[in-house]
Design brief:
Length: 76
């Protein structure tokens, strides 16, 4: 997300102009919030951005598990 406001579009825009929205997502290289009745409904992101986020999440979760195992090892 660049700046203070997240990038947004509407469900209608997504339905009518999928290709335009897809190009917008690739251009921003981040998540795009899809609004329905002015409320967040979905988050759309490019596959590369998703894989990058997923890889970072796996590393964080792996570290948490390891530190938890270390904690259990102290008590058992």
């Amino acid at each position: 997300m660049n700046g203070l406001m997240p990038h947004t579009t509407t469900v209608t825009e997504l339905q009518r102009n999928f290709t335009k929205v897809k190009k917008m997502v690739k251009k921003f290289k981040g998540p795009l919030t899809v609004l329905s009745n002015n409320k967040p409904e979905l988050v759309v992101m490019g596959y590369k951005v998703f894989k990058n986020w997923q890889d970072k999440t796996k590393i964080k979760n792996k570290k948490k598990k390891e530190s938890y195992r270390e904690f259990l090892g102290v008590w058992t």
